[in-house]
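Much of what follows relies on a compact textual record of a protein's fold. A complete example follows; check for yourself that the lines match position by position.
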Amino acid sequence: MKLPSNDIFMEKRPQAWVESSPWYNVAAGLSLFLFILITICVKANVHFFTTIEDKVTATMQANFGHPQLNYQGGFLNDIMTFVASYGDIVPMGIIVLIIAAVLFFKYRKSLAIWMVGTFGVMGVVGLVLKKLIQRMRPAGHLLADDGFSFPSGHSLAATMVIWMVIMILVPRIKSKGVRIIVTLLLVVLWLLILFSRLYFSAHHLGDILGGVTLSLALLWGSMAGYARFFD
């Protein structure tokens, strides 16, 4: 008699982990188009765009002042400090390595290598763009937030990792209820990380939108390639 499995994921092989879909290419293309548009607005200092950014930054600072990255500023500041501390590229990269290790030894070696490779490409592209565009951070940003501003590293990393998990790993969870709860929690975490970059005046709005759209373009494009050649 076959004993029931205590594995939270569905069976390893009956279906592809990354289903082939023409929408991946469409979504990647649309995200890339939006990223290019945002980049042009940032680099050309388009007035209406930077005006919106300045108003958002001013509104955030008027409501929250200049909060510090610590656990001494109340409940909201504690949450923002937590998500800002663990939503950056290095912590997210560690999460990717842990997930990839589990996938490599228990499920799909190709998927593990793909995840690490996709995240690595994202990191390199983001770093190169920061050096090329050289955008300054908003006035009043934390001293710890050094370096250039566009695109946001937090937005890049958090979008890549969280949506990678939502689109590839969460659908494989056996329980529908657990899938819904995990998805909602991950989306809330993602939004909190993005919001924290405005809360701490670490980035302009365009930096965050640029990070999100670039990350999604890379993720969907990479998913299209994986579904075609490996799964």
Notes: Helices lie at 22-43, 47-64, 75-86, 89-106, 109-133, 153-169, 176-199, 205-229. DSSP finds eight helices and no strands in the chain. The radius of gyration is 19 Å.
